[in-house]
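Question (not urgent): is this output format expected?
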Amino acid sequence: MKLKIKNFENSPLFYARIAGLFYLLIIVSGMFGELLVRNKLIVYGDPTTTANNIIHSEFLWRAGISVDLIMHILDLPLMILLYFFLRPVNKKLALLNLSFNLVQTAVLVLNKLNLLAALFFLADAEYLKSFSPDQLHTLSYLSIQLHNYGFGVGLIFFGFVCLIEGYLLFKSGYFPKLFGVLMTIAGLCYLINSFVLLLAPKLSNIILLVPCFIAELSLSLWLIFKGVNLPVWKQKALV
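Got this back:
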């Protein structure tokens, strides 16, 4: 482990590019699932139309779930890399950040079962014959709603991830302070959006997540093309 950590500390630009690439793939995967699959097939307030859309685009629905799971697999190496990048600033906070990230990923992975359940209720299975089509459409739609709330719960933990990362990035000296500010704003937006969803669902608005997209995309691109300030990194990481 000491050898691996030493290799990381001596090659931060290489690992920064890997982290940035993983982060970018996660963002693209998330956009695919939300914008090109669920946003296309789900008609909110209309369980029957939503059910018919899923039935006629079953492969797309399954592809969306699969890409989401790939996204969460990529979460794991990314959070380890970020831990190593942020550890020189404050080891305890970096570990706390890793813990929040692990909980967030676990919640979101488990939440994918709701999307599978939405599909199972629409299957042509004998054990479903006791339900009417309208009942099955409603059960499928309820599963989708549960997924939306589960997503919001997971993002509460990710909101704290962004807050801690924002502080550590700001204090690091080897990342621009701007990213610390942007990630802190992103964390606040994630928390506000999730608690609004839980407390006053009608007021929830995806616009609240726009600053999060800007912050995370900017950080991922910076990691890919710029990485870290090497002199400051060596001063803090190799002590």
